[in-house]
Amino acid sequence: MLLKRFNYILLSIVFCVNLSFAQNYSKEKFDSILFYLNDSSNPKFRQDQRRDLVLKAKKLAIEINSYSLQLQCNNKLLELNEGVDKADSFLELSHENLKLAEKYKDTATIAQINKNIGYYYFDKQVDSAHFYNHKAEKLFKSLKDHFNTASVLLDIALLQRAAKDFTGSELTSIEGIMLLNKIKNPTKEVIRKKAFFYNNLGVVFNLLEQYDKSIEYQNKSIELKLRLKGNNKAAISISKNNLGNALKNAGQYELAIKTLEEILEDENLEKETPDSYAVVLDNYAHTLYLSNDRDALPGLYHKALKASKTAGEDGYNSIIILQHLAEYYNDMGFKDSAKYYGYEAKRVAGKHHNDALLKSLLLLSKIEEGDIAANHLRNYVRLNDSLQKSERAIRNKFTRIKFETNEIEEENIKIARERLWLLVISIVVIVASFLLYIIFAQRNKNKKLEFIQQQQQTNEEIYNLLLTQNEVVEDARALEKKRISEELHDGVLGKLFGARLSLDSLNTNTSPEAMKTRSQYIAELKMIEEDIRKVSHELNTDFVSGSGFRDIIKTLVETQTVAYGLEYKLEWQSTIDWDEVSNKIKIHFYRIIQEALHNIYKHAKANKVSLIFKLENNAICLSIIDDGVGFDVNRAKSGIGLKNMNSRIKEINGKIHITSKKVEGTTVNIDVPIS
Length: 675
Prior knowledge:
Number of helices: 24
Strand order of the largest sheet: 1-2-3-5-4
Structural class: mainly alpha
Number of strands: 5
Oligomer: single chain
Order of helices and strands: HHHHHHHHHHHHHHHHHHHHHHEHEEHEE
């Protein structure tokens, strides 16, 4: 039955393990494993056949290196060993699972296996049970698994009580209850576990002869068990029997009898659990004996002894009944019967070599007389000393195991702390290095931006100088044209006009030839006059007005496109009076074109670019069109170039609109009002 509990617990945790198939293995092998495991549950097969199927599945699981499937196979083998006395197999498979879990650092499974091994050793090797329980406790605590930590603490508390470490058992029980109290929305299992703790506390305080506390804790245990749904009669009966025992020891016989009678009212108790029935009936009979209500005695004792033997001949519980019978017959003066049951109690207790044997020896020292009684008393003293040393050794061993476990835990904490510090220092160094990199990178970026800004300012100053120089040249040209015009008009034209008048006045000669010659000269002079007037008028008109800015733009476009390997087209679709346009607007247009051409070269991968100027609604409109790769306008991030363009357009109260399609190219439209 113990193995059954272990196996089901282990099986339950396997299905909680996250299956990881990081290895490359064929689907056929995986399907075969599932097939073998499924067939191993078929009751039609013999036990050995089912075990062979699991072994085949396990072999494949090892081949594909599947941790969870190996665990499942081992747990299936544990299940198949149930009912067969194969303790070695249980330990072998459990330790194999433990190694697997440690390899994959599965803390939850490691803790559960330690807990199960501890429970296995519970009634076999106390020190081993304590060792594995303490390991499980530490692991469950590290996982903050309050329920399983409390479950292990319950086993430890029971071991401490058996070793008569009552203070330790009390403290462990209280710790377990406090952990269970932390669980929100407690389940049925949590409530049951808490009831077990209170029951243990009740037994401990009963042994310490603090009966009021014992009664208090047993009542709490019963109260919790009554809250549980389902059939909990057996569990409630145990606590009620312990309560009755505490009431009996406290001298509250009426309450003790009433409590024990409530248990005995269950007609099925003797049939279903004869061992429990024997204990309760013996306790009831002994309470009647102490209260001097002995009419039903010794019949109840004999009935209890019979039930105990039905549960198992020479069972441990029969020792107490035999002792009570010896006590009863000795008190009634039936020495032979008292000796018979006294020696029977000693015989059965001798198999266990514990307190029961000690009590039997003390009882026989009271029943016997003379040297025999003295001999029993000496044996009692020797055994008592031996048991005390043994119990002290066990308690010391418990303490040492706990100390060693704590030492290992502290060492692990120290290692973990050192690793944590190493990790923290590494992170700090990495973060500091990253921040320094960002600082230096940002500093270099700022310097670069400052350089670009200074370069832009220098370029603007150069451009302003170019415009100023161009204006000076244009002014000089206009003055020169005006001077030539005035010279032609006032000088040459005046002289020619005078010559024409002179010829006109000489036209008095009426000879046909003279008149014809003069007329020819006069006509020729008129033609010269008209030509001079025309030249003078054209020179006086500023027909190149604004051409300086256009030349600057043309030079910029030609220079940039040659450098960038682009074909260009520059159109002036409307006549724009650039003399009426402020230098600020001209400078910004110049820089915008310069930035746009740079962006086309850098990002667009274009072959051709077109720049079109026109005048619409008293606004200068510039379209810059390329045949590049295009981009998503909505998702693209604004770079420094585009930000500069937007900033310049904003300064001259303009607007910009960009349209682009991937593969087809990009169009930038800029509108700037003249005034």
